[in-house]
Amino acid sequence: MSDEPADPGTALLPPSGLAEDILGFRADSTAPDQLYTFADSVNVHQQGLVERPKAIETWVTFSLMGETFALPVTHVYEILRVSGITRVPHAPAMVRGVTNMRGRVLPVIDLRVRLGLNAAEPSQQSRILVVTSRGRSLGLLVDAVQQVERIQRDTVQPPPVDIMTAQSDYIVGVCDLGARLVILLDVDRILILREIERDALQRAPQGA
After folding, report:
1. Confidence class of residue 205 from pLDDT cuts 50, 70 and 90?
2. Predicted confidence (pLDDT) per residue in 105-123, tens digit
3. Is the pLDDT of residue 125 over 90?
């Protein structure tokens, strides 16, 4: 018998070569599913040899107050420069206003305010992420857009329990990308406001 390693694509058979070892039953067995039993045993062995591909997800990273956040690229379909946002009277503090997107009126949410951070006036680096949620288009104002990252799902860690509250369930998890810790966000949950959040955001000051 050769000592060379078996080809990964070759099924390994028992050294005895006996039918009862290979098929998992005696040769005089009358079991009607003996061939299926053999096929199952081979498939189980082969599944152990094949490495399953790791799930890769694509995220758009951006910054808010020096921290890095990300949204799934499947919900972000355009990135706009900030070219004029019109305030809406009596709108909640998180609603920065509306902007014109090629003839369409796009509501703009100040993501700083939505996440409980200090508001600031847009700079040259500021961008509006146009996202879709529940069949609607909205703009999310961020400090700057960084890049598109491919993240392995098994590298995403749950957010620390001590920083999570019922109002921060929009945090999907955190991921270490070398020098940066990225906070992954759920688009749909960001845009859902509970009563306690609505009250707090109504009281938040507008502008810087």
Report:
1. very low
2. 999 999 999 998 999 999 9
3. yes
The yes-or-no verdict on residue 42 having pLDDT over 50 is yes
Tokens standing for 50? 């094949």
Helix (H) or strand (E) holding 19: helix 19-22
**Closest by CA position to 82, among listed 97, 72, 93:** 97
127: helix, coil or strand?
strand
Of the two residues 13 and 168, the one the predictor is more confident about is: 168
Q: How far apart are CA 60 and CA 128, in angstroms?
A: 12
User: How wide is the angle at C-alpha 141 spanned by C-alphas 89 and 117, nearest 5°?
Assistant: 85
- 116-125 LR contacts (CB < 8 Å, sep 24+): 116/200, 117/64, 117/65, 118/65, 118/208, 119/93, 119/204, 119/205, 119/206, 119/207, 119/208, 120/208, 121/207, 121/208, 122/82, 122/85
- Judge contact between 157 and 61, C-beta under 8 A: no
Residues 68, 190, 144, 118, Cα dihedral to 10°: -90
The DSSP letter of residue 15 is T
